[in-house]
Amino acid sequence: MKVKEVADLVGISVRTLHHYDEIGLLVPAETTESGYRLYSEDNLAMLQQILFFRELGFPLKQIKDMIESPSFDREEALALHRKMLLAKREQLDRMIETIDKTMRHAKGEIEMTNKEKFAGFDFSHNPFEQEARERWGNRAVDEANAKVGRMSKEEQHALGDRMNAIYRNLASLRHLPPDSVEAQAGIQAWYEFLQTMGHYTLEAFKGLGQMYVDDERFTRNIDKFGEGLAAFMRDAMAIYADRGKSQ
């Protein structure tokens, strides 16, 4: 099949297929002398696999690494896709039920407990985890996840309270120069907190601060503690890391 035929069949753009070819993710079985890309049945099977991974939120780089691994098994991957999609469907069903109940509650037809209002929400999977893995490697993320996984619910809540306290303290300092004694003491508390969760090098710590500004999702969440906090933390973290590397 030609690239346009594949694009129409699957419902993606020709540009997307060209990009997959350029990065070596899905290379057509053949390219004619006139430059037409021709896709085989094996190509289509691999494209299906890629799109399953994409649907589940995996970045292209990680998909490429996985499918090129000597240990990659397509049947195992499909079984994993099915398991993840069933879990996703179950969560969506719970959220739809919560919406229906909330609409009835708003009309005065039923009463809802506070717990029922949040049924179906699941934040146990960090939406930024894959990006963190891609940028900084698996070690820090795996160590952090393992430590949190071994904690009781009470310990996890205490950890969250500690993290929020650090953010609130930094927010109170954000109008000071980022190289001030107070700001650097606050950032050191953040660095030490992260070190209790996993191993972060000073370079990774500095890069993490830059991500707070580059990624609007981080900026939006951090700035909930105080407008401009993300940019302040970026600057303070860079100063802390550079000073640490020079010692």
TrEMBL record:
<feature type="domain" description="HTH merR-type">
    <location>
        <begin position="1"/>
        <end position="69"/>
    </location>
</feature>
<dbReference type="Pfam" id="PF13411">
    <property type="entry name" value="MerR_1"/>
</dbReference>
<dbReference type="GO" id="GO:0003677">
    <property type="term" value="F:DNA binding"/>
</dbReference>
<dbReference type="GO" id="GO:0003700">
    <property type="term" value="F:DNA-binding transcription factor activity"/>
</dbReference>
<protein>
    <submittedName>
        <fullName>HTH-type transcriptional activator mta</fullName>
    </submittedName>
</protein>
<dbReference type="InterPro" id="IPR000551">
    <property type="entry name" value="MerR-type_HTH_dom"/>
</dbReference>
<dbReference type="InterPro" id="IPR012925">
    <property type="entry name" value="TipAS_dom"/>
</dbReference>
<dbReference type="Pfam" id="PF07739">
    <property type="entry name" value="TipAS"/>
</dbReference>
<dbReference type="InterPro" id="IPR047057">
    <property type="entry name" value="MerR_fam"/>
</dbReference>
